[in-house]
Amino acid sequence: MSEVGTVFVGNKPVSSYVLAAVTQFTSGSKRVVLKARGRAISRAVDAAELVRRFLGGKVDYGNIKIGSEKVGEPGKERTVSTIEIELVKKE
Amino acid sequence: MSEVGTVFVGNKPVSSYVLAAVTQFTSGSKRVVLKARGRAISRAVDAAELVRRFLGGKVDYGNIKIGSEKVGEPGKERTVSTIEIELVKKE
């Protein structure tokens, strides 16, 4: 398992993303980044808070990045907001 | 107008929060913090990105904080995620 894990948050129940992140931490990752776009951003924030609660304060927030990206076919593109929430295991 | 403005993001159209934040900057605030809970978190991120685009790179992200708070009547409380997105005017 790599040092930095990534979880892409979409439309599944938030528990599936919490499980994915916790699994990456327990398998040895020191950092896990939750990535989401558009309406899934709220779910990514929920997942991050649940991971912190689940791991009982052993995980802190690292860098939180907000941005935008273009989605859709050329000529019909639209801009959607993005978030990257870095969770870091405390030493 | 105080140095630090605050915009609470709820269920209105995102444009109303963009306007509120831009107005605070143009009236002299150096920092504006967008605050949101639950599903409005995605809208707050959208608003922050739109403010940055609208003000043409004159505004950067400062501190972004994620947390939780309890809502609802005593005994029927539930925990909801929160976000605070600080936008800072470049000198």
From TrEMBL, chains A, B:
One GO BP annotation of this record: chromosome condensation
Localisation: Cytoplasm; Chromosome
InterPro entries per the UniProt record, alphabetical: Alba-like_dom_sf, DNA/RNA-bd_Alba, DNA/RNA-bd_Alba-like
Ranges of residues in domain DNA/RNA-binding protein Alba-like: 6-68
Gene Ontology molecular-function annotations: double-stranded DNA binding; RNA binding
Gene Ontology cellular component list: chromosome; cytoplasm
Entry's family note: Belongs to the histone-like Alba family.
Entry function: Binds double-stranded DNA tightly but without sequence specificity. Involved in DNA compaction.
Protein name listed in UniProt: DNA/RNA-binding protein Alba
Organism: Thermofilum pendens (strain DSM 2475 / Hrk 5)
Phylogenetic classification of the source organism: Archaea, Thermoproteota, Thermoprotei, Thermofilales, Thermofilaceae
